Amino acid sequence: MNTHHVKKEQKKSILKKFIISLISILMIPISFYFYATEIERRLVSVTWNEIEAPTIPKEFNNKKILQFSDVHLGPEFTLKQLDNLVEKMNELCPDIVVFTGDLIDKFGSYNEEREEAKEILRKIHAPLGKYAVFGNHDRGGGGSLFYKRYMEEAGFSVLVNDVQKIKVENDKYITISGLDDLLLGKPQIDSTLKNLRQQDFNMLLVHEPDVVDKVAGYPVDFQISGHSHGGQVQIPFVGPLITTKLAEKYVEGMYELEGKSKSLYLYVNRGIGTTRMPVRFWSVPELSVFVLKQSSN
Predict the structure, then answer these.
(1) How many C-beta atoms lie closer than 10 Å to residue 245's C-beta?
(2) Could you tell me if 233 and 242 are in contact, meaning their C-beta atoms sit under 8 angstroms apart?
């Protein structure tokens, strides 16, 4: 047996195994990067929750509220994606639709497709109304000059430190309030919420979730927020790599707090789009559906 030949074959085998191992190791981060930039950020999950309260009129039993948030229209979220999103929303047959801010990533530079995006938003169907509030991206980049009128032309009522009633038959109603953006707007918490009645079911739309600790002093039943993107990039079993201002304490999902003599629920939506970097990991974009239920106590 040729010893030299055997050693040569062994070296080739070791080198081959080394190359395969090296490629495998390199493929792991490449795969994660591809998933985060090309797959997860294009997904949309639907999260369902029941909201129970004795203040919900029986006429609102099983009414569905659909929330979408943080679309960040621009180069990384196209009109085709928006059209698919609206189609998915309409398939869920919501009674009420709420948008909790950050429609366009850079409002001032989003010109060519702005009108077409508005027509797509107009197709959202909600028999009891469509409601929106300002996010920080809607206030920044020139958005303050256009956003309110733009959303109204798309069929939304834009709530800027405002309270409205959503009415059904027999004049039964729930209230929906909206605060201006906390970072770049002029929110008026006290004057907006101080006249809410304890016996009513009161919803609040506000972009930044962490204001809920101040809201807890008013008779609000349910705060609906966005802004956080769920961290946008999370480490499994650890949490978000980065949290943003006013979405540091409440990052995603449902929270129950002690409100003013009644429970206060907060939901923080992970949003649809991305900002700064077109990447999502362990933070799948979402639509949130809330089914109202009148409870007995």
Answers:
(1) 11
(2) yes
